[in-house]
Write the structure tokens for this entry.
Amino acid sequence: MTDSVKHIDVIVPTFCPDERLVALVKKLESQTVRPDNIWIINTLTDKSDKKNLPTPNDFVHVLNIGQYEFDHGATRNLGASKSTADYLLFMTQDAIPENYTLIENLLKKFDNDNVAVAYARQIAYEDDGLIERLTREFNYPDKDQTKTFSTKKVLGIKSCFCSNVCAMYDRSLFLSLGQFPKNMIFNEDMIFASKVINAKLAIEYASKAVVRHSHNYPLSKLFRRHFDLSVSQTQNKALFAEFSSNKEGVKFVKYVLRELWLRREFFLCIKFIVQSAVKFAGHQTGKLYRILPLSVVVKLSLNKNFWRNNLRQLL
């Protein structure tokens, strides 16, 4: 990257946003490297409350789409189509920069022209509990990492781990690699990341670029989320078979249980075991989605509109 000024646009898909979107926009406005534009792609519903949507101006742009138009890949591509910036920063409405150097620290990773993507570290909100904090610690450690084709065999599926909760993309490389896949129920970021690795470009994990982001899902929502994750992996079976899992799920469970046990959080150990069982059940059920009745699949899925949208395309 040269010393010339680089232009960055932020793209945020939203759905019934709460006050965290307000906080996100304020933090983006005050970054040491300020973005040129924030593009909010807002999904409208009959019950949409617009009170947390910012008023459009020369900096913040709001584009409303219908409920049946949302797609994890295509909606983000729509936001990208509005931009002429050098870099695209994709974020979610519930991710808040921890400080004012988020964009600066992500942008530094593009000093190497081979870098296509840089994604941020996530730390949990305090009120989401110890299990969520440990989950983020495992997936987002405090050490930078560069992932390339040469690290593929060592890292396995971690090679294409990348999160659009907060990830910056070189726009020219993003376009040349075909953008995000359409008709995606989940995992548009990881699938694009696999293209990056196979194109022998680099993905950077920027641990000094930090956002607050976590969830306190009930068991029913955990099941549905992992059902959708499994559907995505099943639909892209050849791709995920190409990247060894290296038993990452087992490593994660061992890590969290060990930390909880050492802290004598025995009740949380039981809670985590139950959560892990529910995630596993959702994952195993998702593998069978093709043989389940559509009505059952829709009930089990978190992203119900995905099935309705695709059904409309078939009719």
Summary: DSSP finds 13 helices and nine strands in the chain. The beta strands are 8-15, 37-43, 60-65, 87-91, 96-97, 115-123, 145-147, 166-170, 202-212. The first strand starts at residue 8 and ends at 15. The mean pLDDT is 92.
